[in-house]
Design a protein that fits this description.
Layout lengths: L2 H5 L2 E4 L12 E3 L3 E3 L15 E6 L9 E3 L2 E3 L2 H12 L5 E5 L9 H4 L4 H7 L5 E2 L10 H9 L17 E6 L2 E8 L18 H14 L4 E6 L4 E3 L7 E3 L1 H10 L5 E3 L7 E5 L2 E5 L6 E7 L5 E8 L11 H8 L2 E5 L3 E3 L6 H14 L3 E4 L16 E3 L2 E4 H7 L10 E8 H14 L10 H4 L3 E4 L7 E7 L4 H9 L6 E6 H9 L2
Parallel strand pairs: 1-9, 4-7, 7-8, 10-11, 11-14, 14-16, 21-26
Antiparallel strand pairs: 2-18, 3-18, 4-17, 5-6, 9-10, 12-13, 15-16, 17-18, 19-23, 20-22, 21-25, 24-26, 24-27
């Protein structure tokens, strides 16, 4: 059987019944309507025929906590917001773009199970998977994705899941094509399966869905708009790469839903509706299919409510949140080109724990805490720091994304080259979210001034930083384990 035929697996799923919960406090952005004539009146005054709500990269954001821009409301506020949006349409579907299972504190506290279990309770109708669903290996992913309770669709990596699903939304056939990240091995070298390009897969999958009765084709992909950091603060969005993909799929899919990159775009690309809301449950993206066949897109930013999440993992989160490991007098953050204080704290902790001459922490390793709405990717408020906070900063627990610290000897000249390249002096063919040029260079802690020709350098390598260092220096280094890791480093520094 050809790889293409293997990839085309379609599942049918019955319509879902949803219970409307209490209305959260939400704010609406001005909508963008895709039609030949300007919209008349408020888009919320008449019910669309089908409303698609979308989220991406929830990454364990189930519990309320403070962020640099305000608050992260948590899963209960998210579910309430989606339910209120559902009530404003004749029919609706909630589609998620993946990376829902990883994230602290639940994933590291449960061996990678609580994230899957909590996802199952949210009321999502269909999802694809992200690269972080594989953080505990393929067999772990197969088991827990098989118990998700909702259709999980992925066409471009064979993990035994269907490529598409045909859903009934109030009599409208909605075909959903799922695509994980097109370059999974860039994030997890243990994945060996072939990945066909979306532009190869989607035309045949869409044609098959329309033949089976789909009125609307939705493609959800774990990839999205690129961005660059700026000295002004907010991200500068770059749509060029993803727009090229959208152009190749135009005429086959009616809308695309994005994720993965932590950027945001709500509108049209290449005349196709493309919606990628802020990640971490900070925003819900909405696409309304109107009675005249036009599409309306907008975003809903969530605000704090009084209803905490009480589902799976709530008791574990409570216990971890009350396990105090230290206290900080000032907030710690990672905001490229502005504030690297959280990475600096961890570099100090590595220096204290290892005794290495130089300790490095790359800020791109710390982008698992909040949406960069104000340009900030990680944030700890002043005050007590709990074990739950530590696990949010560094949630990774597996060999596939390793937070362990290693040490190697190198010359002063080699260190100079490493630091220059780690600050973006050389182009690197990596995902935008990992590019050294994006982040402004690593945090550096020095234990003492060495007068010899060689020095010891300690660092973790979550995203192949050790391999990059060797490529910049031009030789293979001997890396020895230190017995400590990034979490221990942060615990050490905040406990001082």
């Amino acid at each position: 059987m050809s790889p293409l035929r293997c990839a085309i697996r379609t599942a049918r799923w019955p319509p879902w019944t949803h219970t409307t919960r209490s209305l959260p406090i939400i704010s609406f952005e001005p909508p963008t309507t895709i039609s030949f004539e300007p919209p008349i009146g408020d888009v919320m005054t008449s019910k669309p025929r089908v409303r698609i709500v979308t989220t991406n990269d929830l990454f364990g954001s189930f519990f309320h906590r403070r962020t640099s821009y305000g608050v992260q409301p948590g899963a209960r506020s998210l579910v309430n917001a989606v339910d209120s949006l559902r009530s404003g349409a004749e029919a609706s579907l909630w589609v998620d773009g993946g990376d829902f299972a990883q994230g602290g504190p639940l994933a590291p506290a449960s061996g990678g199970t609580y994230g899957f279990a909590t996802f199952r309770e949210l009321g999502i109708d269909v999802a694809t998977i992200g690269n972080h669903e594989f953080d505990w290996g393929e067999e772990h992913a197969r088991r827990w994705l098989g118990e998700a309770g909702v259709p999980i669709v992925v066409a471009n990596y064979d993990i035994g899941l269907p490529s598409t699903v045909l859903l009934d939304a109030g009599g409208v056939g909605v075909g959903v094509i799922g695509l994980t990240h097109p370059a999974l091995q860039q994030f997890n070298s243990t994945l060996s399966g072939d990945q066909l390009a979306p532009e190869v897969l989607v035309p045949d999958l869409a044609r098959s869905l329309r033949t089976s009765g789909a009125d609307v084709i939705v493609t959800v992909i774990h990839d999205g708009v690129d961005w660059t950091t700026t000295v002004q603060g907010p991200l500068q969005i770059d749509t060029g790469r993803i727009e090229a993909l959208v152009t190749s799929l135009r005429g086959h899919t009616d809308v695309l839903l994005g994720g993965h990159t932590l950027g945001r775009f709500i509108g049209t690309l290449a005349d196709v509706p493309f919606v990628q809301p802020w990640a971490f449950g900070a925003e819900v993206g909405v696409l309304d299919w109107n009675a005249d066949g036009s599409w309306t897109t907008f975003g809903v930013m969530l605000e704090e409510t009084d209803n905490p999440w009480t589902g799976p993992g709530a008791s574990a989160n409570w216990a971890l949140s009350h396990e105090v490991v230290g206290e900080i007098s000032q907030p710690l953050a990672v905001r490229p080109w502005h504030d690297n204080s959280l990475a600096e704290s961890m570099a100090r902790g590595i220096a204290a724990n290892t005794g290495a001459d130089i300790s490095l922490v790359f800020p791109q390793q710390l982008q698992t805490m909040q949406s960069p709405i104000d340009g900030t990717f990680a944030f700890l408020p002043a005050g007590q720091v709990s074990e739950a906070d530590i696990l949010r900063v560094v949630p990774f627990i597996t060999d596939h994304v390793c937070q362990d610290v290693f040490v190697s000897e190198m010359t002063l000249g080699e260190l100079e080259v490493l630091l220059e390249c780690a600050s973006g002096a050389r182009p690197v063919e990596v995902d935008v979210a990992l590019s050294p040029k994006t982040w402004g260079g690593p945090a550096v802690a020095r234990n003492r001034q060495r007068t010899g020709q060689t020095i010891s350098v300690a660092m973790a390598s979550l995203y192949s930083e050790r391999a990059l260092a060797e490529s910049w220096i031009g030789r293979t280094l001997n890396w020895d384990p230190t017995g400590t890791d990034l979490r221990a480093a942060l615990r050490t520094d905040v406990a001082r």
